[in-house]
Amino acid sequence: MPEQQVAEHETDPAEEVGAFLRRRREQIAQRWADAALFRTVYTVSRDDAVDAGRTVVEALAAVAVSGRVQDAEADGFTVVREQLARTAQARARAGATIAQISEEMDALRPPVTDLLLDELSESPAEHLRECTTALTVLMGTLRLVMLEATTIAGQELINRQRLELLEIATPVIKLWEGIVAVPLIGTLDSARSQVVMETLLDAVVEQHARIAILDITGVPTVDSLVAQHLMKTVAAARLMGAECIVSGIRPAIAQTIVHLGIDLSSVLTRASLADALAYALQQQGAHIVPNPASTVEPR
Amino acid sequence: MTHSTGSVSACLPINSDLDLVRVRQHVRQMTAQLGFGLVEQTKLVTAASELARNALVHGGGGQMECTSVSSGGIQGLRLVFSDQGPGIVDLDQALSDGYTSGEGLGMGLGGARRLVHEFSIDSRRGIGTTVTVTSWNSRPPRPREAP
Q1: Is the distance from CB of A102 to CB of A111 less than 8 angstroms?
Q2: DSSP strand E in A118-242: where?
Q3: Where does the Histidine kinase/HSP90-like ATPase domain start and stop, copy by copy (chain B) (predicted)?
Q4: Contact assignment for A261 to B20 by CB distance below 8 Å
Q5: Which residues of B touch A266 (CB under 8 A)?
Q6: Which tens digit of pLDDT belongs to each residue from A82-95?
């Protein structure tokens, strides 16, 4: 009778698994060191891989003993969370997908299960089943912890990159004495356009710019909000005594603006940055004259 | 005119500025796949941007359904923007240029209507607004330009 057999072994399966993990820590760590996940991350020395494996086994044992094999938030996992995230990131950098990492995590389970089955070969079938189940659940939870750590790390990276993009994508370039240009790239949402306006107005003051060129070659869509942002920026620059030119208006964008019904006649526009620069230089009283001595034919 | 409607190819949520970027990118990809010219692509993407922003700003968020349709061998793209917002009180006024209930230019709805081939709007107070637009890839693919 299975119930009687369980009664004979009063130890809790999770606790037993915890004790087993502690006993066999070295063996498991050695076997894991040869598994794809550890082998590919700790390439320099096998000892590092064994060390890392040992830490993970110890954490698993702590979780098992506390009886929270299903709980990804269990205290035992705290010590290895960062290490697991680093491992997953290293794999991701090497081109592994989340699915592949998950699969490699799963590959850690069979060596441990084999050891457990060996050790408990004399135990009653029901107890054996309970222990393997506990171990399987525990390994599943470990996999969840690792993937969670990976996702959080990825999200932090994305947030940081978003902030960086906001800064990077709006450089102000001095083209000539008194002429600055801002090449706009990507989506011009409210946050971006605020940054653009601030950096442009700062540059107008710092560089004593009389002419500022906003180049929208890299802006894929110009809808009414983008147009409004552009007009506001132009108006603000004008208040500071700088003339603003919007350049890089492609044929498709021009037709779209006309159909949309936006009146950009208050804004000075040019088709390309080169045209805008030529106009700006002309306004400054500078002229580009081909050098007759030059052997290179001007295009 | 009989339209054969394909299955809904995508249903994108509109709940943040980031979703607007996704909407634009999706419409751009779909129009490119259907062989829209660059001008028609840009027009439909811009109209989608306006309508999605309306759903976000005035409707408090919603969704866009994207369906490829065909009629008499001509392929097109139908976009349905729906929100559960307060609805539009005066449609004629909302469609007129320069009218805005917010801080925008007031060109979004009327402008979007001019950018697409077919436009219909259904708005009920307290229930929400649904705008359906369709554009067709009417021209045959352009021949390869001579070098």
Answers
A1: no
A2: 173-176, 179-185, 211-218
A3: 39-139
A4: no
A5: none
A6: 888 888 888 877 88
Q: Does B41 touch chain A (CB under 8 A)?
A: yes
Sort out which chain B residues have CB atoms less than 8 A from A190's CB and list them. Answer: 17
pLDDT tens-digit map of A232-283: 999 999 999 999 999 999 999 999 999 988 888 889 999 999 999 999 999 9
Cα A174 to Cα A242: distance, rounded to the nearest angstrom = 14
As a whole number of angstroms, the distance between CA A170 and CA A158 comes to 19
Q: Which domains can be identified in chain B, with CATH numbers?
A: 4-136 (3.30.565.10)
Residue among B82, B9, B92, B73 at smallest CA distance from B35: B73
Please calculate the CA angle B81-B82-B87 and round it to the nearest 5 degrees: 120
Q: Least CB-CB distance to A259: which of B43, B45, B49?
A: B43
A223 touches chain B (CB under 8 A): yes
What ipTM goes with this model?
A: 0.79
Which residues of chain B lie closer than 8 angstroms to A224, CB-CB? 50, 104-105, 107-108, 111
**pTM reported for the whole predicted model:** 0.65
d(CA B32, nearest CA chain A) in Å: 14
Per-residue tokens: B122: 């259904």
